[in-house]
């Protein structure tokens, strides 16, 4: 719960005083152990927001929160950090699941109307479907 409060406070400060947040982000990137822990907590808070949004079936918002978690972790912890890699995996999996859900929904809608729908090439490649050309 405290991670969400920290995240809310940071977002509120960003709106009220953008320069203060910039100073805080510079402090986080100094590399001491306390700031690394706090950075990890904030990245995980973004991730947890995504989990809750996914539970509420707000999938685009969940994907955005997962992406924010990855970006924040990469910027402050580094791309090779274990937390960053786990967050990136969750983001990629969620994005792929959303692509598949959209593909299936479009396919079902196309079958019911009898028309061909345009599907993303990435999804088509993954599932062996054919894309239509316009």
Structural class: mainly alpha
Mean pLDDT: 76
Which overall shape is indicated by the principal axes computed on the Cα atoms? elongated
Number of domains: 1
Largest sheet: none
How many beta-strand runs? 0
Share of helix, binned: over 70%
Distance between the termini: 50 Å
What does the secondary structure layout of this molecule look like, with pairings?
Layout: H1 2-16, H2 18-28, H3 33-55, H4 59-76, H5 82-113, H6 121-127
Helix pairs in contact: 1-2, 1-3, 3-4, 4-5
Describe what this molecule looks like in 3D.
The protein is mainly alpha-helical and 134 residues long. The chain has one domain. Helix content is 79%, strand content 0%. The chain contains 6 helices and no strands. Helix 1 crosses helix 2, helix 3 runs antiparallel to helix 4 (59-76) and helix 4 packs antiparallel against helix 5. The protein is elongated, with a radius of gyration of 19 Å. It starts with a helix and ends in a 7-residue tail after the last helix.
Q: Which structural traits does this protein have?
A:
134 residues; mainly alpha; 6 helices; 79% helix
Summarize this structure briefly:
The protein is mostly helical and 134 residues long. 79% of the residues lie in helices and 0% in strands.
């Amino acid at each position: 719960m405290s991670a969400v409060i920290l995240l809310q406070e940071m977002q509120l400060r960003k709106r009220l005083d953008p320069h203060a947040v910039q100073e805080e982000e510079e402090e986080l990137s100094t590399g001491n152990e306390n700031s690394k822990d706090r950075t990890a907590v904030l990245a995980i808070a973004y991730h947890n927001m995504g989990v809750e949004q996914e539970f509420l079936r707000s999938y685009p918002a969940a994907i955005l929160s997962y992406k924010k978690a990855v970006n924040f972790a990469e910027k402050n912890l580094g791309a090779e950090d274990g937390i960053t890699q786990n967050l990136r995996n969750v983001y990629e999996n969620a994005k792929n699941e959303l692509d598949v859900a959209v593909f299936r929904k479009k396919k079902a809608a196309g079958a019911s109307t009898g028309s061909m729908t345009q599907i993303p090439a990435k999804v088509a490649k993954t599932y062996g479907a054919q894309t239509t050309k316009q």
